[in-house]
Amino acid sequence: MMAEKPVKFVIFLSLILSLVAFWDHQFTSYLKEFVVLIHEICHATAALFSGGVVKGIALHGNEGGETIAVPASFRGSFILVVSAGYIGSSLVGAFLLRLGFQGRHARQTMILFGMFLISVSVLYSKLGDLAYFTGIFWGVGILVTGMLGETISILSLVFLGTSISLYSLYDLSDFAERLTETDAGILAFWMAGLGPEDLQNQEVPTVVVVLGYMIATLWSLLSIGIIFMSLRSSLSHEETHDFPDMEESFERFPGDLSPEAKLWLEKRGVDPESGIVLPPNLFQDFPPKDNSP
C-alpha cells in the first residue's frame, strides 16, 4: 500500500521527469500511440452509451487517430461523442492514477482493463491495422501484468495513469497549433451549422474560430481540473486499516504480554488472553475499586 504522501509524490514526480526526458524516444512513441487509442476509445464508448453505432477505430501513426461513428438521433449526442476524446482521456488517466495510489483492486483493474482493450481492438479496429496491433499489444501486456501480483499492478496503474494524464495535458497544445483540425474545431463547425465539406476550406469563418477557442478553453479547464483533483486526492489519501486479528498480532508481537500491555488492553475492554472485545456492560475500571470500609 502506498500510504505515505512523500513516497507517492516522489514516485509521481519521478515518472513525470522520466517521461519528459524520454519524450522523443521510440518507446515513448509506442506509449503515445496507446494514449491516442484511449482517446479514440473514449469517442467510441460515448457513441455506444448514447445509443449510436461505432463503425471503426483507426490510428494514423503520427499521433493522430480517427473514430468512425454514427451518433444517436438526439442533438446533444454529437456534442457528447466529440467531447469524450479529451475529457474521457483525462478521466481514464485520473481514475487509473487514483486506483494505483490507493492500492485497491489493482490486479482486478489491470486484468479488466487489458481484456477491455483486447475486446475493443478486435471488435472495432481492422485486422492488421496500427490500432489493432496497438490495442492487442498493450491489452495483452496489461492483462499479463495484472496476473503477476498486486505490487506490480499498483505500480503499473500509477505508470499508466501518469502517462495518460500527462499526454492528455500535452495533447491540449493542439488547440493552439491547429485548432480547426482538432475535435474542438469539428464541434465548432457543427455548432456554426457548417458541414464536412466546409472543413476543407482555406479560410476559416470567424465564428468557427471564436467557438473553437471557447470549446478548447472549456475542455482544457475541465481536463486540467479532473487531473488536478484526482492527483490532489490521491496524494492526500491516507490508508485506513482494520484492527488486526489475534493471529496477526501474535506474529507481529511474539511472546507473552507484559503486565503493562495486559493493563492497557483491559482498560479498553479487550480480554488479554483471548483477544476478544468484551461487551460494553462488562467494561470496568482497572484495577477494580476497593469498596471495603
TrEMBL record:
Keywords: Membrane, Transmembrane, Transmembrane helix
InterPro entries: Peptidase_M50B-like (IPR049500)
Annotated spans, Disordered: 272-293
Transmembrane residue ranges: 6-23, 78-97, 109-124, 130-149, 207-231
PANTHER family assigned: OS02G0221600 PROTEIN (PTHR33979), PEPTIDASE M50B-LIKE-DOMAIN-CONTAINING PROTEIN (PTHR33979:SF2)
Protein name per Swiss-Prot or TrEMBL: Peptidase M50B-like protein
Source organism: Leptospira terpstrae serovar Hualin str. LT 11-33 = ATCC 700639
Organism classification: Bacteria, Pseudomonadati, Spirochaetota, Spirochaetia, Leptospirales
